[in-house]
Amino acid sequence: MVFTLQRYIFRELFRIFVMATIGLTLILSLGGVLQPVQEYGVGPRQVLHILLYFMPITLTFVLPMAALFASALAYGRFAYDNELNACRASGISLATLVYPGLVLAVFVAIANLLLSFHVMPYFVHLAEKSLKADAKLILFRNLQRRGYYSLPPDGRFLVYADYVDAKNDTLLGIVGVGASRGTVQEIVCADAAVVRIDPHDKFNEVHLDAIGAKHMTDADWIEVGSMSVSQEFGSLLGDNIKFKRVNEMKQIRTNLMQFDPVAKVALDAYRQLAREMLVRDINERLKTSQTSWYELRGSAGSVRFSAASASLEGEDIVLTPPVMIEAHDNRSGEDLPRLMCAEGKKPFIRLGEETTDPSLTLQLYNARVEATGQLVFSHAVSGLKLPEPIRQALARGSVLHVVAPEYTKSILRGPPSPTLAGLQETLAARIENTLVDIRAEMNTRLVFGIGCIPMIMIGIGLGIIQKGGHLLSAFGASCVPAATLIVAIISGKNVAESVGLESLSGILIMWGGLAGLTLLALLIYARLMRT
Predict the structure, then answer these.
(1) d(CA 374, CA 372)
(2) What are the residue ranges spanned by the domains of the chain?
(3) pLDDT of residue 138
(4) Low-confidence residues in the chain, pLDDT < 50
(5) Sign of dihedral through CA atoms 163, 164, 168, 174?
(6) pTM of the entire predicted model
(7) Is the CB of residue 458 less than 8 Å from the CB of residue 520?
(8) What pLDDT was estimated at residue 449?
(9) d(CA 84, CA 89)
(10) How many CB atoms lie within 10 A of CB 335?
(11) What is the pLDDT of residue 189?
(12) What angle do CA 422, 425, 428 make, to 5 degrees?
C-alpha cells in the first residue's frame, strides 16, 4: 500500500515536472539564440543547431525551477484535498509521504551536476564547431548586412566590402584595416579578393587573396598588385572558464598555457621579448661602424644588411636609412643583387605567428638595385630565423618562465620596455583571474547542484504549509529561498573574482548560502513534524 501511494505521488510530481521542463526549456532556449543571431547573422539552419546545442545550458537552470514548481504544486494539491491528513491519520509518516519528492530532488541534483560539469561544456563546444564550420557563410552574411566584419575574438582586423559575391567566394571593393593595442598598424585596399578558410583545431584562418592591391605607407599608397592577407578567425562564443569541463579546468590549472586567453598574452609577451632582444643585438652590432653588417640566416637563404640604426615601432623592427641589403639563395648558391633603401617607407623586420621559435620576414618598399638603379616597389625575404644566441636564451624553460619579469630583466640586462612590462602585468593579472575563475566556477557548480535538494524540499514543505491558499502561492514563497541561494552564489563569485586568490570570503559566501537554505529546510520540516 505504501509503495502504491508513493508511486501515485511520484507520478503526479513527474507529470508536472516534465511539462514545466519542456515549456521553460523552449522559452529560454529561444532567448539564448538571440545573441548569436544578432551578432553573427547566422541562418535558419544554424539557428536550429544552436537551439539544440544550447538546450543543456538551459536545462541546468530549468530543471531545478521545474522541480520546485512541480513539488510545490503537487504537494500543495495533495494537502489541500486533505489526502495528506488522511494518510497521516492512517499511520503513514510524513517522511514516507515526502520520499517521492526527495527522490526527485536527488535526481535533479545529480542531473544538474552532470549537466554543469560535463554535458553543458560538451554541447557548447559542439555549438562552437557548428559556427566554425559555417565561418565563410557568417563572414559573407555580415558583410552583406553591415558592410564590414570584425574578425573575433579581439577584432584586430576589420574587413570592409562594397559587394559580396557569395557564390564565387569573392569580395569586391575591399578595405582591410589591421590594428594592435588600439592603433592602426596597416591599411590595405584591393579591387577584389577571393576568400579561403583553412580550419584548425581551435580556430579558422581566413585568407584574402587580393587583386589590384594597394598598401598604405606613412606618406602615400604603394601599388603591390596581388597579395595575400591571413587572419585568425577565432572563437565565436568566447573561450571562457564557465564553458569548460571539470577535467579541462584541472588541466588548465596544471598547465596555464592550455587556456587560450592566457596563452595568447604569454605568446605576445614572448614575441615582444624576442623583438627587443633582436633590436638590442642589431644596434650593438651596427653601432661599431657605419659599414658593419648584420646577418640573418634561414633554411632557403640568408640576408645581411647595414643601417643607421634599428628601432621598435609597434610590432615591427624598423631599420633607419640608408639601408643596404645583400641576400644569398641557398638553392641556387648565388648572391642576389644588392638593394638600397634611402627614401619612402622604411624597411622593417616582422616576426611570424609561430608559437615558439618565430620566423622573420624582412620587408622592403621602393628599394633600388645598386648596380642598375632599377626600382623595386616591394620585396620580401621570408623564412629567416632569429640569431642562435637569442634562440637559446628564449628556449631556456617554458614560455611562462621566459616572459617572467625576473628572467626578462636578466637577459635584457635592464628593465623591459613599457610595452613588454604592460604585457607582463596583463599576463600576471590574467593568470590570477583564471585561477580564481576556476576555483569560483567549480564551487558555483557544486553549490548550485547540491542546493537543488534543500531547494526542492523547501518547495514541498511550503506546499504543505500553504495548503489553505492559492496553489501557486507556495511556489512563489519557495522561490524566495531559491533566489537567495542564487544571490549568494553570484555575490560569492563576484567577491572571489574581485578579492583574488588570497581570500576565501567569496567561497564562504556561496557555501554559507547553501547552509542557510539547508537550515531553513530543517526548520520547515521540524514544524511539519510537530503538527
Answers:
(1) 5
(2) 2-134+431-530, 154-233, 246-416
(3) 72
(4) none
(5) positive
(6) 0.77
(7) yes
(8) 94
(9) 9
(10) 11
(11) 81
(12) 150
CB-count burial class (<10 Å; 0-12, 13-18, 19+) for 187:
middle
pLDDT digits (tens, 9 = 90+) for 481-505: 889 999 999 998 888 877 665 568 8
Question: Are the CB atoms for 191 and 163 separated by under 8 Å?
Answer: no
**Whose CA is closest to 355, among 262, 256, 263?**
263
Residue 520, Cβ density class (10 Å: 0-12 exposed, 13-18 middle, ≥19 buried): buried
Contact 340, 324 (CB under 8 A): yes
Other C-beta atoms closer than 10 Å to the C-beta of 434 total 18
Farthest CA pair distance, the chain: 112
Cell reading at 117? 560539469
| Cell triple for 112 | 544538474
**Cβ(345)–Cβ(319) under 8 Å?**
no
What cell does 301 get? 637563404
Q: CA-CA distance, 129 to 21, in Å (whole number)?
A: 27
Say how far apart CA 217 and CA 344 lie, in whole Å. Answer: 8
Distances (CA, A) of 178 to 218, 219, 229, 294: 15, 18, 10, 29
- Helices vs strands, H then E, count in the chain: 15, 16
For 440, the grid coordinates are 569560483
- Do residues 439 and 291 touch, judged by C-beta distance below 8 A? no
Round to whole Å and give the CA distance between 305 and 327. 9
Q: What is the pLDDT of residue 454?
A: 94
How far, in Å, CA of 31 to CA of 307, rounded?
60
What's the grid cell of residue 281?
643585438
| 55-93 pLDDT per residue, tens | 888 888 899 999 999 998 888 888 888 888 888 888 888
The reported pLDDT for the residue numbered 65 is 92
Q: What is the pLDDT of residue 237?
A: 55
The C-alpha angle with vertex 249 and arms to 156 and 484, in degrees rounded to 5, equals 95
